[in-house]
Amino acid sequence: MQLAVYVGWLMHGVRGGVAAGVLFVLPGFLVLLALSILYVLVGDVSLVQGLLFGLKAAVLAIVAEALLRVSRRALKSTSIVIIAIATFLAIAFFGVPFPLIVLGAALAGLLLTRIAPQSPEPVDPSLTSDARSSGWSAALRTAAIWFAIWFAPVATLALLVGVRHVFVEEALFFSKVAVVTFGGAYAVLAYVAQQAVETYHWLRPDEMLTGLGLAETTPGPLILVLVFVGFLAGYRGETGLDPLAAGILGATITAWVTFVPSFLFIFVGAPYVETLRRNRLVAAALAAVTAAVVGAIANLALWFGLHVLFGSVAEWTLGPLTIPVSDVASFDIAAALIALSAGIALLRFHFGVVFTLAAAAIAGMLVRLIMG
């Protein structure tokens, strides 16, 4: 989405960036909102449950494919591999919050550049003209305007209903998520799942998988899965509104605080993008953050895998160490076969995601029909 805003800005300035960003997100938002409504209205129907069962199994294969794809591009040195492994262990077994992971990885990257300095890649000087002509006052003015657009509705909502209201909790939580979403939806979803499921109790673990499966079938960025989470939070929250109206409002608030920050980041930073890319320290920090993203996606794959393949998942805790423990007797053979087939379709035969999801959904419905 940020790339779309950046391209729009390059072509037609702020108006082009706004048009590109809004139209990139809006179709997917409307589709996922409609799917969320259908989920709460007919999600208990057997065939629908089968469809969602197949989608969740396929999501495991999609996340694994994403992990392999990002790993091939990002893990190019021993130090970067170590950062990725450390990130995985920190999130998976010690519950370190993703924002701290990003900060720690950036600091590690800065430290590594002093140990093994690298030359920055050359950049066309003509691409930095906007940065030279833009002053700090313009950047600060742009940041102030878009920060107000981002947070004015949140502040108004907090004054009207209080900071403990579910809508305000959504707005603040997903604002934080928007700030730390380095590496896309796969990188941050484990953090979202941890908070939305275990802390706020907005939805169940299997519903996170359902939301990701639905988001994979819609146009637009995968981070739209947060709209599904926001819808369920509003729908099930104590708002005093009709549940569907509350769900729609919750989804809208979530989309607002998730995507408006992207306009702030791009409009403030776009004039400096190419100049920053030549900065050795910035490049090293971003390379380390990318390695951390690989570790975060690996943790997401583990989390999804346990909840897709096993009906019962507990935790064994020893001090700060937490190890997930699955009940072997609850292993779901049908889910494993669908996930394995989806993985073969994606990795061996390079079928498209939409086709793979459709086939998995049909397989899930057949399993439900056969097994009752």
Describe this structure in words.
- The chain is mainly α and 372 residues long.
- The chain has a domain at 2-42 and 121-278.
- Helices cover 77% and strands 3% of the residues.
- It contains 15 helices and two strands.
- The chain has helices spanning 2-42, 46-74, 78-94, 98-115, 129-133, 136-161, 166-179, 185-199, 205-216, 225-236, 243-269, 273-277, 280-309, 333-347, 353-371; strands at 313-318, 321-326.
- Strands 1-2 form a two-stranded antiparallel ribbon.
- A hairpin with a 2-residue loop joins strand 1 and strand 2 (321-326).
- It is globular and about 65 Å long.
- The model is unreliable at 119-133 (pLDDT under 50).
Q: How many strands?
A: 2
Principal-axis shape equals: globular
Q: What structural class do helix, strand and pairing data support?
A: mainly alpha
> How do the strands of the widest beta sheet line up side by side?
1-2
Work out the radius of gyration.
Answer: 21 Å
Which bin fits the share of residues in helices?
Answer: over 70%
SSE pattern, N- to C-terminal: HHHHHHHHHHHHHEEHH
Q: Provide the low-confidence segments as ranges.
A: 119-133
In oligomeric terms, what are we looking at?
A: single chain
Number of DSSP helices?
15
Average pLDDT: 87
Distance between the termini: 42 Å
- Percentage of β-strand residues: under 5%
Largest sheet: 2 strands, antiparallel
List keywords for this structure.
single chain, 372 residues, mainly alpha, two-stranded antiparallel ribbon, 2 strands
